[in-house]
Amino acid sequence: MPVSNLAKSLQKLEKRSGVLRNRLLKHKAAKKFFSKSSLIAYNLRQKSSHLLAGAGLVGALITMPAPTSMVVPTTPSEIAQPAENKLTVRQKLMTGLQEILPHRPVKLTDENASQVEKIIYENTNVPTKVVLEDQSLNHTLGYIGFEQHLARFPGDSLAQHDEIQEAGMAPGRGAFGYFAQDRTSFTTKEFMREKYYCVVQTLYLENWNRDHRFLKDWYAFRKMLVINPVNGLAVVCDIADAGPADWTGKQFGGSPETMQALDLNKGPRKGLVLMLFIDDPENKIPLGPIN
Question: For an engineered disulfide with 175, which of 31, 133, 242, 247 has Cβ 3.0 to 4.6 Å away?
Answer without folding.
Answer: 242
